[in-house]
Amino acid sequence: MNNLKEQHWINLFGKYDSESLGWFGTWTTYSPEKEVLKTFQGVRCFRANEDKTVITHTNDYTFSDGSTSSKSWTLEK
User: Fold this and answer.
1) What is the mean pLDDT of residues 3-28?
2) Which of 7, 27, 34, 41 is such that its CA lies 20 to 30 A from the CA of 67?
3) Which helix (H) or strand (E) covers residue 68, if one does?
4) How confident is the model at residue 20 (pLDDT cuts 50, 70, 90)?
5) What secondary structure letter does DSSP report for 38?
6) Up-side HSE of residue 39: CA atoms within 13 Å toward CB?
């Protein structure tokens, strides 16, 4: 089982390093009736520590009114 967990971690995060590039995209929130509630731009970045045992996941958002927000958390192996 440990080998399977190790392989899963490598599959998810093995390519990231401290200089990983971000994924640029558009986030859209919908109502239960499938109506667009809001749409905004975002950048998602994953960065690893040196031995790739801690991944920092950061989302940076830019909204239509020019305001910004950032959310960040870590995942530990």
Assistant:
1) 87
2) 34
3) strand 68-76
4) confident
5) E
6) 4
- pLDDT average, residue stretch 29-36: 96
The alpha-carbon radius of gyration of the chain (Å, integer) is 16
User: For the residues 12-36, what does the mean pLDDT come to?
Assistant: 90
Q: What contacts 24+ positions apart, CB below 8 Å, involve 9-18?
A: 9/77, 13/46, 13/48, 13/52, 13/55, 13/75, 14/52, 16/46, 16/47, 16/48, 16/52, 16/55, 17/47, 17/48, 17/52, 18/47, 18/48, 18/49, 18/50
Give the global pTM: 0.76
Whether the CB-CB separation of 1 and 8 falls below 8 Å is answered with no
